[in-house]
Amino acid sequence: MADVVATLLSFPPENASTLSPKEYDKVIDGYLKKLVKLPSSVWTKPVGKQNVLDLLNPAVNSIPYLAALTEQTRAVGRDTKKRQELLERAVIFCTSFDPVQVRYDGEQWTEVMNWTLAALVAGDVPTVSPVTTAMLRLDPTAGTFTTLHLSLLRYSFEAGVPSQTLPILDKDIYAFPSSPTKNVPEELYSEQHELSNAFITTKSGYGPKLQPEYVLEYYLLGAHVYIGLRDYDRARLFLEHNILHPSPHNATSALQVDAYKKWLLIGLLSEGRTWPLPRTHNTSVMKSIRSLAKAYDTLAEDFEKREFRKMAAEMEVGAQVWLDDGNMRLVKEVGDALLKYRVVDLQKTYAALPVSRVANFLGFAADTTAHMLAEMIRSGNLQASISQSAAPGDAILRFHPTSTILESDIDLEAQTRRIQDLTTFVRDADRRLQLTKEYVDVQRRAKRAGPENDMADQMDLTWDQPLPELAGVEDGDEDIMAA
Predict the structure, then answer these.
(1) 384 DSSP β-pair partners
(2) Do 193 and 152 have their domain in common?
(3) Whether 164 contacts 131, CB under 8 Å
(4) Which of the listed residues 186, 209, 232 is the one where a domain comes to its end?
(5) How many angstroms separate the CA atoms of 344 and 336, rounded?
(6) pLDDT in tens, 329-374
């Protein structure tokens, strides 16, 4: 058993910090081969009287610690005490593991994270924060989409703590796991290893193969979180990602239809009108989506025309539709918002007017109108003030000038950081495109065609120079696990 323990503790070597990426790969690959040869009982049976996990440091011996966690969580069964002990160890692992080592064992890492999510949600104080921390530890950008992104959201809704996923949701997805490109030397990728799509690939084990519905569900659930927080700008972005998702053969997903319905409603809530359709939408898909959401389009049309009574009737007639779609609460909020926007519209014509005239315009009693206006002012939905008067109808409603300072103007630093991040992601995407066989083929044809008929114009990439030397590279898989 002493030999087994020595094997477990043999990595990382003392000179790990001085190893080049290639040397690190070679050493860790040899270490992994040794671990595979160990019997499975090594991870579950006590060493002396100690759990093997007690002999390992999750921050230093992350790979064997992860292997032991995986085997022990598989074998724990219904032993409540043992499950709680393993959960505590898993939480410690989430906050301390070596992210470079874990890149080499994506399959077990994903399995342990999913087990941890299930155990956390089933606990007395449901939470998903430890797994959120682990995801950002592995990939600080959280920008390469995996099935764990979706699992995190699903469990957070089950536990009633969706806001705990914001550290992940607030990160923009810039890549999906792809197959390593053949015929490309490792050094052409090495400078981009700070981006997670260099090591989260289809072969690295971070969850099963992605399906389109996983991405659609992620963006739809994420939009739910932002709608609940009244962050309509971010919700709009998520819903439009869903609506614009590429569809083979112009097929329409039910998730896209659901996204479109919510997209209409929050546009009315946030701006008093429907947003213009994204310019890049697929006309055929959008036509199909709208044919399945006619009731919502009718509601939006009534709202934009400020036809309060007609919209109220539509809301009542379609009550079962809103209920079945899970949008009843949003539709009611839209109905309430119509009153607000009818009052706000008055500001385009008047600087001040008696409450009695507002009451006549809305069709309510003066005291009801005064109370409603006071509530709108208190909640910040109306920039105005009401003068004091003995009779509610004699009071004067005075509109205040609206501020011209936008939130985006205030948080310039955050906007700048986001643009810088997006620039990095675009550079990486352009670089990877240049490393594909298709790009090289285009370059070959363009070279044969001559400068007057340059086919490279069809793939105009602005960040890096083309890589014609790839044409003569020998076959060989890319080493994606360099640190």
Answers:
(1) 399
(2) yes
(3) no
(4) 209
(5) 13
(6) 999 999 999 988 999 889 888 899 999 999 998 888 988 888 889 9
Residue 352's identity, in one-letter code, is: A
Q: Is residue 325 part of a domain?
A: yes
Cα–Cα distance measured from residue 175 to residue 139, given in angstroms and rounded to the nearest whole number: 12
47, 66, 134, 410, 433 from 83: Cα distances, Å:
20, 16, 19, 48, 46
pTM: 0.83
DSSP states along 180-208: PPTT--THHHHTTTTSGGGT--TTTTSSS
For helices 147-159 and 106-121, angle between their N-to-C axes, nearest 10 degrees = 10
- In terms of domains, do 161 and 251 share one? no
Output the six-digit token pair for 139. Answer: 């990939």
CB of 134 within 8 A of CB of 120? Answer: no
Q: What is the dihedral angle through the alpha carbons of 420, 422, 425, 431, rounded to the nearest 10 degrees?
A: -80
Q: Name 44's Cβ contacts closer than 8 Å, sequence gap at least 6.
A: 52, 68, 71, 72, 75
Output the CA torsion 257→262→263→265 (10° steps). 130
347, 399 contact by CB (below 8 A): yes
Residues 35 and 1 sit within 8 Å (Cβ to Cβ): no
Residue 472: pLDDT over 70: no
* Domain coverage including residue 345: 211-349
Measured CA to CA, the distance from residue 434 to residue 73 in angstroms comes to 43
In a domain, 221, yes or no: yes
Residue by residue, DSSP assigns 408-468 as HHH-HHHHHHHHHHHHHHHHHHHHHHHTSHHHHHHHHHHHHH-GGG-GGGGG---SS---G
336 and 377 belong to one structural domain: no
Give me the residues paired with residue 399 across strands: 384
Q: At 12, give phi and psi (nearest 5°).
A: -80, 155
Cβ neighbours of residue 113 under 8 Å, at least 6 residues apart? 94, 131, 134, 135, 148, 151
How many residues are there in the chain? Answer: 483
Average pLDDT over residues 254-264: 97
192 lies in the same domain as 227:
no
**Which residue type is seen at 212?**
P
